Amino acid sequence: xxxxxxxxxxxxxxGIRSDASLRELIFEAVKACLDDAGxxxxxxxxxxxxxxxxxxxxxxxxSAQVHDYIGFYPKPNFRVEGACATGSxxxxxxxxxxVSGLAxxxxxxxxxxxxxxxxxxxxxxxGRAGDAxxxxxxxxxxxxxxxxxxxxxxxxxGTTEEQLAMVAVKNHYYxxxxxxxxxxxxxxxxxxxxxxxxxxxxxxxxxxxxxxGAAAVLLASEEKAKALSKKPVWLAGLGCATDAMRxxxxxxxxxxxxSREAAKAAYxxxxxxxxxxxxxxxxxxxxxxxxxxxxxxxxxxxxEGGRLIEAKETYVGGRIPVNVDxxxxxxxxxxxxxxxxxxxxxxxxxxxEAGPRQVKNAQIGLTHNVGGSxxxxxxxxxxxx
Amino acid sequence: MExxxxxLFINQTKVNRFAEDLANGKITSTVCKHCGTQYYPPRAxxxxxxxxxxxxxxxxxxxxxLTFTRxxxxxxxxxxxxxxxxxxxxxxxxxxxGIIEVGKGLPxxxxxxxxxxxxxxxxxxxxxxPFVLPDGKITIVLEPV
Lengths: 385, 145
Ligand SMILES: CC(C)(COP(=O)(O)OP(=O)(O)OC[C@H]1O[C@@H](n2cnc3c(N)ncnc32)[C@H](O)[C@@H]1OP(=O)(O)O)[C@@H](O)C(=O)NCCC(=O)NCCS
Ligand SMILES: [Zn+2]
Description:
By secondary structure, chain A is α/β, with parallel strands linked by helices. Chain A has 14 helices and eleven strands. Chain B folds into two domains: 1-59, no CATH class; 60-145, CATH 2.40.50.
């Protein structure tokens, strides 16, 4: 199979960006990405745009807003979608473009503009990412789905609310060191534990944020990457898998089968295992999701996720540093941008450019991005060499 | 009985008899005539053998609780929108929800109106029954047995 590398990265400021529209957010990320690669749009063959919600972008074909505003037409650009995993679906699609021989240089962008609507509306839009016919009539929301996973995990393995809060403490700590993060402030265990309940047992600090933001990466074929970049980051393994729509129909309620399958495929393609990973960004849309991800990715045994964070093994210096960019929890979670933002962060780590969050001599990194309550999951493995 | 009385948004489906059965006090599933696979929620088409001849069958109503939650930040559709009465306060007390398994691969979701969240435990035995709401909508409730 052809080799593909990331040769440029761009990240806009995440947050409540009441100063900017969707297309303006994209411009920031694309500009930064092209500057990083030292290229102009003229040299780019095609583009993939990740946007999760039509309701957030106020219309179908949000990709047109993007190629119009950055002046990319008449070259190919279309939108892909996979709920909260949209950004990784976009990256995978960009990779396919190059592997297939259709293009040599592909721009992958992800964006979401979520705060134009009030929280209750955003909650409804996201809640319908479950089963709109058979679950939504019971008032389900995104926090609600993960709260049900949390209660099942706590009952099966003795995972505690404190352990959930410890994930928030870690991710807020790293968010405070990330200038692109929405919430650059630390939180104490006590504050996290006493915040209000969003969906029992998940509290405010167990939830990711509602965020506006964009990120972009430039992909290149092996030949172009070697010619263009001093520090290419190679896409070494990709996995994508799906699962049943409704929680009740899943094989397990304490793991995400789609993540297990995606991880298996990605590890196999890269020819490595979980213990080879030096740094990872995982889908911590809720604190319980990070604990389940440790287990699904093989960073610890099933049921041991709570103890892994308690032992601080996922901090820099621990066995496997996870979400040292602040994660969705503190960096923010603009649905379509998240997967691309994860690839940007891992690229920084492998290029040795992560500043105070740098994992020493990181050679192999992993991203894990889940859509909906686990209906789709993508795992990508990146290497320096 | 329109299906929308159960589903809120979607009204056009091949399984709208489900809402009628619910109104008549029965929680029903479909069973594939070719391979015998049983589906809840009911489906018009069988994904096991790709055939579409199904028959309706009432479900057992008792099972163990797989999981539960109580949602405090509701979606727009369920948000309390009426303006508050002057000099009054309205305490929003959301109702827990849960999923029970009444047979292998047969999970029923429902409201748990009569229980304190702290007393709800994964694994507890519960019973599902149809429930007509004051506005004529129809839903499912779970209670301990
Ligand atoms: C939890 C949630 C409902 C809170 O939203 P909200 O009630 O509108 O909160 P507000 O915007 O009014 O913010 C109130 C305060 O809490 C803070 N806050 C909001 N969300 C927060 C979060 N998730 N974690 C920590 N603090 C948060 C705000 O910064 C604000 O602080 P301030 O008063 O110091 O300025 C919302 O963040 C949410 O739904 N998160 C989940 C998003 C989701 O489901 N994503 C998809 C997952 S795949
Ligand atoms: Zn069949």
